[in-house]
User: Which sequence fits this backbone?
């Protein structure tokens, strides 16, 4: 199935059993709860206001991040240092029309970035639980950050080179 030639517009019925983006257009995804094509979240956080946005569903062809959520926000002095003992873990899901998603940590280097609230980008490296489908079109992975102990909320931005940007907040 060629993702770039799909014709299902926003609100059209899609089939979650087909995987993302199902029959939805590039830049959209199949919303599991409604089985409808939905646009991927737009990065509204200040991280990307300062960094800038580059992705355009009409002209880009890179990986599309369609889901991001915080799954941990707790002290972890084994994983983190005493200076920044709070570990936050984000889980991201993405699809790629070009079927070239990484299957191991090394494949993310110079391709996937974390954007701090200051707008500065960093090559994301504290990744784990990387699950890529055999056709390399779909991926789920976790990203870990270590924050100062008094942090009560943190918004991170993430993007693939040539792909979509997304913001996610943990508290």
Assistant:
């Amino acid at each position: 199935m060629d993702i770039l030639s799909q014709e299902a517009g926003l609100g059209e019925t899609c089939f979650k059993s087909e995987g993302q983006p199902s029959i939805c257009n590039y830049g959209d995804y199949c919303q599991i709860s409604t089985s409808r094509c939905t646009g991927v979240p737009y990065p509204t956080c200040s991280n990307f206001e300062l960094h800038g946005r580059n992705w355009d569903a009409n002209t880009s062809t890179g990986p599309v991040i369609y889901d991001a959520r915080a799954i941990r926000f707790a002290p972890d002095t084994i994983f983190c240092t005493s200076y920044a003992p709070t570990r936050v873990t984000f889980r991201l899901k993405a699809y790629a029309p070009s079927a070239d998603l990484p299957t191991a940590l090394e494949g993310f280097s110079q391709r996937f970035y974390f954007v701090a609230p200051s707008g500065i980008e960093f090559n994301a490296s504290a990744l784990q639980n990387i699950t890529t489908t055999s056709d390399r079109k779909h991926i789920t992975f976790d990203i870990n950050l270590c924050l100062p102990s008094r942090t009560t909320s943190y918004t991170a931005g993430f993007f693939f080179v040539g792909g979509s940007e997304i913001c996610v907040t943990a508290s």
